[in-house]
Amino acid sequence: MKYWLIWICCFPLTLFAQAEFENIASWYKAWDVLEKEMDGQYSSATKLMDELLSMTDSLPNYILTTGVELYTRTNQMKKAFALLEKAIIKSEKNLCEKKWPKEVHPWLHQHSKWKEMQVLCEKRKNAYRPPTHPRLKAELEEMLKLDQMHRSVQAEMPKDTSLWELDQKVVDKMNLKRLEEMIDSFGFPTRKMAGKKGAMAAFLIIQHASLETQEKYFPQIEALVKAGEMEASSFCLLADRIRIRKVKISKDAPRSEWPTQLYGTQARFNSATGRYEFYPIEKEAEVEQRRFEMGLMPLKWYAKKLNVMYPLK
């Protein structure tokens, strides 16, 4: 059985971190901006960004920095620096050291307002929080490369998996053994300990482990998400994965026999239709609300990214 996972940078929902956006309308609009920006439609994306900013002042930093890039590309530097200032004030990283796209970087750094941003970054330096375990961070990031090495190949060639599956099982077993040694010594790696990428590496190693291992560490991951030390999206992915794996079905089972999921993160190949489809979603009419509250992208964008047909026709 093949599962498809995208990790982007999400039960009772009020137990977890608040949604990143004020409402679903601004959430959808933000993803409209990102879609146009990723497609290189900068003029259209900039107009959508104007609309988004007219709807709300409360935006996550990845949207603010996207706005900085868009306004710089369209030579609206006053707007670009207004958003950059907001992003610097909110960020726990030094955005003055951020590597901007090559088409954007010189326009920011050579502008007269850049020195003001550097002064602001300097004032904010006490808010920047480097990982408490830098060696752990570095090792986990290397483990992440191994975790994704063969999977990235498989994503490009989904019909030929025999060789990579054998190699990946060896890598996964090695990664899990080392991760459990880390957990025994330091506890489950968190963003505070190992940075965002390091914490994601630890999660993905569990996500790719056996069902028994996933169930073993699920309570720890749930607790870390509640404490804000792991992405809520990680919880969603693992919750859906466990629900799916606990129900055994045949390779050619009709979709009516497929187990259900909560957040719409899991898909499989349907031999009857010849395409990848999401596992059925429990109370599907409410799934976008669940995804919104847990910081996931809207389902239609997720489906497009995975090349999964949604909604079913």
Question: What does this entry look like structurally?
Answer:
- The protein has helices at 24-38, 42-55, 61-73, 77-90, 105-109, 114-123, 134-156, 162-186, 191-207, 211-226, 232-245, 287-293, 299-306, and strands spanning 267-270, 275-278.
- The chain is mostly helical and 313 residues long.
- It folds into three domains: 1-17 and 250-313, no CATH class; 22-91 and 93-127, Serine Threonine Protein Phosphatase 5, Tetratricopeptide repeat, CATH 1.25.40; 134-227.
- Strands 1-2 form a two-stranded antiparallel ribbon.
- α3 (61-73) runs antiparallel to α4 (77-90) and α4 (77-90) packs parallel to α6.
- The protein is globular and about 65 Å long.
- The protein starts with 23 loop residues before the first helix and ends in a 7-residue tail after the last helix.
Unreliably modeled segments: 1-18
Quickly give the structural class: mainly alpha
The biggest sheet, with number of strands, parallel, antiparallel or mixed sense and barrel status, is: 2 strands, antiparallel
Give the number of DSSP strands.
2
Estimated share of beta-strand residues: under 5%
The top-level CATH class of the largest domain is Mainly Alpha
Number of domains: 3
Kindly report the spatial arrangement of strands forming the biggest sheet: 1-2
Helicity, in percent?
A: 55-70%
Q: Summarize the helix and strand pattern as letters.
A: HHHHHHHHHHHEEHH
Q: Categorize the overall geometry.
A: globular
Measured between the Cα atoms of the first and last residue, the distance is: 23 Å
User: How would you state the average pLDDT, rounded?
Assistant: 89
Write down the Rg.
Answer: 21 Å
CATH architecture heading of the largest domain: Alpha Horseshoe
Helical stretch count? 13
CATH topology of the largest domain: Serine Threonine Protein Phosphatase 5, Tetratricopeptide repeat
